[in-house]
Amino acid sequence: MKEWIRLGLAVLMAWAWGGCSRQDEGRGMSGFPEPADGVVLQTDWFAQPEYAGFYQALAAGIYEAHGLKVTILEGGPNADPMKRLALKRAHFINARSDDAIVAVARGMPIRFVGVTLQHNPQAILSHEANAIRRFEDLDGKRIMVDVGAPWIRYLEKKYGIEMQLMPHNFGLNHFLSDPDFVMQCFLTNEPYYVRQKGAVPHVLPMWESGFDAYRGIIVHADFLNSYPDVVRRFVQATHEGWHAYLYGDYHPAHRLIAERNPMMTDDFMEFIRQSLFQWGIVSGEGNDPAVIGSVDKERLAQQIGILHELGVIEKKVDLGAVFAF
Q1: Which of 209, 232, 252 marks a domain boundary?
Q2: CA–CA distance, 121 with 131 (Å, rounded to integer)
Q3: Taking CA 216 as the corner, what is the angle to CA 214 and CA 220, rounded to the nearest 5 degrees?
Q4: Residue 32 predicted with pLDDT over 60
Q5: Same domain, 243 and 298
């Protein structure tokens, strides 16, 4: 997710492994382990409520009710879900819609099949006393970021700015020690810790710039073609998991998440859950349950156009080559 160059490596690895993986014992015509024996979801980060729809569907028996045996594998800073998908070592991964566009443009046979988050929670984090309230205010600023992420080029081009980039180390020490420091964050996460340390955070959501990626479910095209009903049931069950988590008893997800990630305290998870409502990240600005899983294809087409204009992809790809809903 975090290093675009890995997508190209994943393609090469998939080509190298594709032929032999089809011969593996217990694998079906798609080259994947038979889904009747269980399917694997690989996330791109540790267990936390931003993935609560998956954990609620697992813990509350929603996947089971849809005839699915699901294993969730957690990610982390060095996780590479797209590579695992290319190697057919996971049936499903979660990632951003722009990840999917770039992967397809570089030759990976994958499809984005279901939206989980209406907005990627990425934001610009600053101190309230020296808040970044407009993207133009980033001009000349030193900012700790995922260097190479396409939104950096997008902001600089759209607003005519130039930022001094510092590689992200996934820590808050520098931010907390310097009231002028700026960094990218998940607005559902870092602000909690900043307040815990006595500082006052300000967040500027990335989607307000117009770089507005979905987050969702991605599969290999071979798996989708061989097992479309399994994919449909997994997506449906995940959406039901999100509905149950946001508008029902959310404790099954929180218990499972805390079991897998001890850093997830009750207080922190409640902060994340309330942030999902506050920012309309799952069910839109009006927090309408009917919005869960919805998609705007015009918005997706705009994402393709933005990535092409930035030179992230050499040529535009067809919407249908990336997204299958």
Answers
A1: 209
A2: 18
A3: 125
A4: yes
A5: yes
Same domain, 179 and 291: no
Do 298 and 153 share a structural domain?
Answer: no
Alpha-carbon gap, residue 51 to 68, rounded angstroms: 18
Structure tokens at 17: 């492994």
Judgement on whether residues 192 and 313 belong to the same structural domain of the protein: no
- Tell me the whole-structure pTM to 2 decimals: 0.90
- Give the pLDDT confidence of 217-228 residue by residue, as tens digits: 999 999 999 999
Place of tokens 């969730």: 72
Over its C-alpha atoms, the chain yields an Rg (Å, rounded) of: 19
Asked if residue 7 has pLDDT above 60, the reply is no
Asked if the model's pLDDT at residue 96 lies above 90, the reply is: yes
Measured CA distances, 295 to 214, 215, 216, 222 (Å): 9, 11, 10, 23
Q: Where are the beta strands (DSSP E) in the chain?
A: 39-42, 70-73, 92-96, 110-117, 122-127, 142-145, 164-167, 182-186, 201-205, 215-220
- Across-strand partners of 71? 40
Question: Exposed/middle/buried for 85, CB within 10 Å: 0-12, 13-18, 19+?
Answer: buried
How many domains in the chain?
2
177: which 2 tokens? Answer: 């020690």
pLDDT (0 to 100) of residue 28: 60
Mean pLDDT of 96-123: 97
Question: For residue 232, what pLDDT band results from cuts at 50, 70 and 90?
Answer: very high
Same domain, 137 and 181: yes
- Under the banding of pLDDT at 50, 70 and 90, the label for residue 42 is very high
Same domain, 133 and 258: no
Query: What are φ and ψ of residue 199, in 5° steps?
Result: -100, 165
CA distance 111 to 220: 6
